[in-house]
Design goal:
By secondary structure, this protein is of the alpha+beta class. It has one domain: PPM-type phosphatase domain (Phosphatase 2c, domain 1). 32% of the residues lie in helices and 26% in strands. It is built from 7 helices and 11 strands. The strands form 2 sheets. Strands 2, 3, 4, 5, 6 and 9 form a 6-stranded antiparallel β-sheet that branches. A 5-stranded antiparallel β-sheet has the order 1-11-10-7-8. A hairpin with a 3-residue loop joins strand 7 and strand 8. Helix 1 packs across helix 2. The chain is globular and about 50 Å long.
Amino acid sequence: MNVFARTDIGLVRKENEDYIFASREPVGPLKNLFMVADGMGGHRGGEFASRCVVEQMIRHIRESRKANPVSVLNDAIQEANQVLRNKAFENPELWEMGTTLVAATIDGATMFVANIGDSRLYLLEEGRHLRQVTRDHSWVEEMVADGKMQRDSESYWEKKNIITRAVGIDKTVTADFFEIDLNPGERILLCSDGLTNMVEDDEIERTLSRPEPLEELGTELVEEGKNNGGRDNISVILVEPDLDEVNIC
């Protein structure tokens, strides 16, 4: 399994509120684990929230005795949500902090994905077709689904950063889960919206379709986001499963 992971502060923000984790080695019952969190909140609350949630999830998963990846991830998310809320109650400066989360683990030919908010996971199918697996939990996407707004319109981009679901905001949080069958030659991208707000999907597709090593392609995506303005923190995790880890038949 080839893996590339990088987070960059960008060109405008004073702090990096993204936090990432990438392990091709087992974490508790999970055979590998990849996570991107994008925090929000004043007084450095966003920076604290993303780190806290990822680190708390890692601790929980390492101690988990469950076997089902979805159950393992969901339990970890719920515990991290409660821990973050408790931290906010203890420190008024962290009140209303929260974080998006996209997480993935691969077991044989199957990938299990969890997402909350607007950090995304993409799959490059057949080595050339980019598909967004996750669905953004954002106000504009709800308007699009209801037929009240056109995607990529001016009003869409003006309000795109209003998310409707995040870890740490409510007593309970609901993650969307996806179970994806993998095929040889596919590549996986987890990223924060600091990338997708700066680099169009078709450009991401063209980049990931090239045969260069993941380190070169991932670095190019981050730099492209910065060249286009770098208005937010940019996080990228690229995963290329080994052929013997997917169903070749």
